[in-house]
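Q: Could you predict the 3D structure of Thioredoxin-like fold domain-containing protein?
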Amino acid sequence: MDTLTGCQVLKKDGKLKNAEDILNPKITTVIYLFTAGHVTGRDIVLKTLKKVYHESKRRGGSWEVFFVSSDKSEEAFKAEFFSDKHGNWYALPYNDPRCEELRYKYNISSLPNVVVVRTDGEVVTLNGREDLESIGINVIVTWG
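A: Sure. Here are the predicted structure tokens for Thioredoxin-like fold domain-containing protein:
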């Protein structure tokens, strides 16, 4: 995951971690969650992704989620990420240049959006939001 190389990411407990430490050999799939607190329609995506993430971890899952914020301020970012709507996943820090790089790389033009990629760079889906809305928790099979 060359985009995350050298990146520090934020955990829900407020601590920074090296992305390389998180993306150990056990993790085979990365889910990028592109959204912001002011975006309408994000709640159902967050609710479903949170269930999927929890179930994946319960099964010893090989996935990790990274929140890529489009919030307009650091305060809005913190209010969004540290809310109970988000799962116990990671976030790229507010205003990290990789956020813009990822939006460009995956052609993100609307929010919320979910992109699923393998750690070897293979794209599983650029339409993760639609998958979450249409098949729900069964994305565990579809994305697996």
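Q: Anything worth pointing out?
A: The radius of gyration is 14 Å.
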